[in-house]
Design a protein that fits this description.
The chain contains six helices and ten strands, in the order αβαββββββαβαααββ. By secondary structure, it is an alpha+beta fold. The chain has a single domain, classed as Thiolase/Chalcone synthase (Peroxisomal Thiolase, Chain A, domain 1), CATH 3.40.47. A four-stranded mixed sheet has the order 3-10-9-8, sandwiched between helices. Strands 1-2 form a two-stranded antiparallel ribbon. The protein has a two-stranded antiparallel sheet with strand order 4-7.
């Protein structure tokens, strides 16, 4: 979602006419396989989309946020200095804290993006959230008063592939025939840092 927003801004400003947006993760390199509460959730993956300037509606609105006060709930605490990793290079996550924060901020950012586009939650045909876990995704859909039938879910197939999860889910939904041209799609994501954002688009 972050890269999509940057690419959209570059195209709208005239700095680029086309952009390749790639999300890729290799979580297997940073997982603590002794921590069964975390390691079973994540997967490696990559996804990409190509954006181009067009007179047709495409990306209707985006919004990004970051709040370092919550950086410790999802992070790799180690640092790199002089080519060496100091401290733990493995992922640490407070799942309860991430859930509580994520559902709230994802609802707010989705409503803000809808306001920017002059739309309401009733205008969303499909919700493609970051595939963190099913509880966060369903919680967000319910807060937006959306039927769970409109929620695109791939976490059961791919795990949480972080930056790759939204483009992977979009691809699955398009290939399966669920998402059709002209439909309105809300993309949402959360990540380490703590960061979150949303993009509303006409497919």
């Amino acid at each position: 979602v972050y890269a999509l927003s940057v690419a959209d801004s570059m195209i709208k400003s005239g700095a680029a006419s086309k952009a390749l947006v790639v999300g890729a993760e290799v979580f297997s390199r940073i997982l603590d396989f002794k921590d069964r509460t975390t390691c079973v959730l994540f997967g490696d993956g990559a996804g990409a989309v190509v954006l181009g300037a067009s007179d047709e509606p495409g990306i209707l609105a985006t919004e990004l946020h970051a709040d370092a006060r919550h950086s410790d709930i999802l992070c790799t605490p180690g640092t790199v200095s002089g080519g060496q990793v100091l401290g733990s290079p493995l992922l640490k996550m407070d799942g309860q804290a991430v859930f509580k924060l994520a559902v709230g901020v994802l609802e707010k950012v989705a409503r803000s993006v809808l306001d920017k586009a002059g739309m309401t939650d009733a205008d969303i045909d499909w919700l493609i959230p970051h595939q963190a876990n099913i509880r966060i995704m369903q919680g967000t859909a319910k807060k937006l008063r959306m039927s769970l039938d409109k929620l695109i879910v791939t976490v059961d197939e791919h795990g949480n592939t972080s930056a790759a999860s939204v483009p992977l889910a979009l691809d699955v939904a398009v290939r399966s025939g669920r998402i059709q041209r002209g439909q309105t799609v809300m993309l949402e994501g959360v990540g380490g840092g703590f960061t979150w954002g949303a993009a509303l688009l006409k497919y």
